[in-house]
Amino acid sequence: MSDKSQFPFSISPSTLSKLAKLNISNIWDLALHLPLRYEDETHITPIADAQLGVPVQIEATVIHQQIQFRPRRQLVVQVKDVSGHMLYLRFIHFYPTQQKQLAQGNVIRALGEIRHGFLGDEMVHPKIRTDIEKGLSESLTPIYPTVNGLNQPTLRRLVDSALKSLPADDTLPVSLLEQLQLPPLIDSLHFLHSPPPLYTVRDLHEGTLPAWQRLKFDELLAQQLSMRLARHQRLNGHALSLNGDGHISQPLLANLGFELTHAQQRAIREITLDLAQNHPMHRLLQGDVGSGKTIVCALAAAIAIEAGFQVAVMAPTEILAEQHYLKFQHWFAPLGIQIAWLSGSMRKKAREETKSLLTNGTIQLVIGTHALFSEDIEFNNLGLVIVDEQHRFGVAQRLALKNKGDSVHQLMMSATPIPRTLAMSFFADLDVSVIDELPPGRTPIITRLVNSSRRHEVEKLVRHTCAQGQQAYWVCPLIEESEVLQLQTAVDTVAELQNSLPELTIGLVHGRLKPVEKAAVMAAFVQGDIQVLVATTVIEVGVDVPNAALMVIEHAERMGLAQLHQLRGRVGRGAASSRCVLLFSEPLSDMAKARLKVIYENNDGFEIARQDLHLRGPGEFLGARQSGMPMLRFANLEEDLALLEKARDVAPMLIAQQPEVVKKHLHRWLSQRAAYLGV
Ligand code: ADP
Ligand code: MG
Q: Which range of residues forms the domain containing residue 498?
């Protein structure tokens, strides 16, 4: 019987539908549905010896039962064990059957954590057993993730049946397992589903157990294999080879007014080589904020235009897209390039006009938001797509882009450094160029953490900064619940600052402004007509005003590390020494404290990303961008680096030598999730 078929034993339709909710549709899915945790019902702990806050099983006689009505209706049962100690069992939700189970004089077992309660030591909602004549379990009891209506005993029975029906041969070659010192898969599954006696809960939760290692390895291997196959598919795909003759890039470089850094030059060399290939480039240009990614992508655009193709540059926000538009216009318009702008908020007539000029090929370079990849936009001969701040786009947008330009070269840019383990796993299909050098003459940004009660001192600093001819950003707190409230706060802030700093010109930019209004405010700030720019977090990405030397961020404790780092990167772009003041309000959560400490102590985006990963775990780190990506169920990218490296080494060998093993392995691990890969 093949894996794909239904189960080889009978399961009721209602159970089948509940299994489907758990993404279980065959015996392998069942076998890989591993316990979330284990309960230890193998021995009895005397109440007197029980540690607080640790799950224990006690055996005791009910001496009193009572329903209390305050503060709410609840069942409270007093029990006493052979050590003579008393304990309360408390149930906020209960059924008549439970009252019967816990009748006075009954001997019961209760499994739970003891804590100090109002009346004395108590267990809240312990698991109760009355079948004590059955004796104790011999091994730990697995507890599975489940859904409503599917109880643990049923799941356990189904998993047992599945384990018995699995084919006996391993999925990976025996020689490979020996070399990696990993146990057979079937043994590992048996072990984890019904751990042998003598293993403790602590042992079982230890990720270094050979059985866990095997499962984690298999999972990481599946990920490596699918990423590699996606890559092979791309390399076998066709794209036109783009070779420039330098008639645009040469003068562009000559007019820049600065020399490229070595890191920028290296990135451009790598991109130039990619563009000349006849399969699509899929390259990520990674560089900390301010490292100069824009000129690198402009040179890539120049090459594609020289080769006679159209280029589209997509940015995640209108403000950023407009900034790019202005910059590109400044660079390209004098060279006679036809350049255009496209966004969702554009007037219909203008949009229609741009659209037709894109379709007939008049426009060579177009810059905009994701509106660029709306269904009705048709390019004449799109050769290169550049995506800025790539991590800000969601899956849907990336899919739209993929559909438009499967055979088009793609250059993605990101200032959010991807930690090495993530780069090796989720981003294994990308080639990466790193700009690991800032343009010369920058002075490091001085970061200060200031309690918001000292706000007036910060206002003085703003005055001082502007008196020296420099400019400042003042970022208003993020108010997630309400955009209106956030706007109100921003308006209030402008009034307050204007009141304390009457000699300064203060501007406001926020998400509700119309694009033309935003552009006008930004232009005034760029020209220095506005000295202090109060902003909601819309300025977060990519805005470039070298004369801005002070960044004040209110309620910094509410923001994530990546966001703080991005915001701080808006200053320190010119040669003058810059400051970033992080205002915080107490009380601070532990997480907020940890984040502020990281941002205070580090300037290097890579290090910040690494610590962010550590604080939040990869799932959250990837955030919305990765929604829909198959996340790892068992492996942990931080703890299991060694396994990840092994999987990465083994994957190409298997693909080359044992394609049937690869197929089987992927089918087993990714059957329902494969669709998301490669986006
Ligand atoms: P990011 O990588 O954050 O997108 P930008 O491309 O906006 O950074 O560049 C930041 C600033 O540094 C811009 O003002 C840009 O003109 C300037 N810049 C870029 N490369 C160099 C260089 N090699 N030398 C001097 N200034 C540079
Ligand atoms: Mg940028």
A: 445-602
The model's pLDDT over 208-266, given as tens digits with 9 standing for 90+, comes to 889 999 999 999 898 888 888 878 887 888 888 999 999 999 999 999 999 999 999 99
Ligand nearest to the CA of 268: 1
Rounded to the nearest angstrom, the distance between the alpha carbon of 563 and the centre of ligand 1 is: 19
The residues facing 412 across adjacent strands are: 284, 387
Task: Write a three-state SS string for 50-80.
Answer: CCECCEEEEEEEEEEEEEECCCCCEEEEEEE
Same domain, 305 and 368: yes
Neighbours of 561 (CB within 10 A): 23
Smallest CA separation from ligand 1 atom 24, residue: 439
Q: Does residue 71 have a cis bond before it (omega within 30 degrees)? A: yes
Please say if the pLDDT value at position 518 is more than 90.
no
Residue 221 inside a domain? The answer is: no
275 lies in the same domain as 373: yes
Domain end: 175, 206, 237, which one?
206
Give the number of the ligand closest to the Cα of residue 435: 1
The pLDDT tens digits of the residues spanning 557-570 come to 988 888 898 889 88
Mutate to test the pocket of ligand 1, among 256, 442, 573 (most ligand atoms within 8 A of CB): 573
552 CA → ligand 1 middle, Å = 22
Q: Give the ligand whose atoms come closest to the C-alpha of residue 294.
A: 1
User: Domain ends where: 406, 435, 464?
Assistant: 435
Neighbours of 260 (CB within 10 A): 17
CB-based contact 185:214 (threshold 8 Å): yes
Distance 293 CA to ligand 1 centre (A): 7
105 part of a folded domain: yes
Pocket of ligand 1 (CB under 6 A): 258-261, 264, 287, 289-295, 415, 439, 542, 544, 546, 573
Determine the distance separating the centroid of ligand 1 and the alpha carbon of 301, expressed in angstroms.
Answer: 17
Residue 223: inside a domain, yes or no? no
- Whether residue 343 sits in one domain with residue 276: yes
In a domain, 664, yes or no: no
